[in-house]
Amino acid sequence: MLTRTTLSIGPQALAGELCLLDEAIGLVLFAHGRGSDHRSPRNQRIAQSLQNESLATCLVDLLTPAEAADEATAHDITLLAARLSQAIDALPPAAAALPLGLLGAGTGAAAALTVAAERPQQVRAVVSRGGRTDLAAPVLSDVRTPTLLIVGGADPVVLRLNREALAQLRGVKAIEAVPRATHLFLEAGTLEAAALRAGEWFRTHLPA
Fold first, then answer.
1. What distance in Å separates the CA atoms of residue 131 and residue 20, rounded to the nearest whole number?
2. 114 touches 139 (CB < 8 A)
3. Over 70: is that where the pLDDT of 175 sits?
4. pTM value?
């Protein structure tokens, strides 16, 4: 059975949605990129795919609308990582008890990698989708959490940045370029392919 709960995180009352499943094998917390939020159709489609793989999901906004509209703030990885940590600490007991994975997109991927470096015992797996991994450059060599970098095969700049980041990561790591996909994975079937690969990674690395 799927149980949906709305969340309000921190003094900023950041909005979110927690979806818990009976017999869930883990929880995936989303870290959105700029221009996206927990109601994004793309994020909801990925969340549904992960739920079909027996993974609970938590989608939470890391910035207020005013903060997200400010370019400097939207690219403040230290702030995004702090908010992501705040969201982890605010999870209700039933969610906090599950093995934790992070799924980041765009700038959210840099925040997810930063938190993985800071909380190696708590974060069990990371997936980046079209991530600005270059913005996490100072901490990449500290990331030992199993990490999958999913990039659009038709997104050459971000693909190069992710290949450079892969070389700096420690521990289990992989990169996958989804054919025909551009940065937002808008091409038919590409978002679904990314979601399926993310689900495989979490199912492999989250269970004890």
1. 26
2. yes
3. yes
4. 0.94
- CB neighbour burial string for 122-151, b if at least 16 within 10 angstroms, e if fewer: ebbbbbbbbbbbebbeebbebbebbbbbbb
Per CATH, which fold does 2-205 belong to?
Rossmann fold (3.40.50)
- Helix (H) / strand (E) element for 44: namely helix 41-51
Q: Name the residue ranges covered by the structural domains of the chain.
A: 2-205
Question: Which DSSP state fits 98?
Answer: S
The bridge status of strand 147-152 relative to strand 173-178 is parallel
Taking the C-alpha atoms of residue 88 and residue 64, their distance in angstroms, rounded to an integer, is: 17
pLDDT greater than 80 at residue 23: yes
What is the β-pairing status of strands 14-21 and 2-9? antiparallel
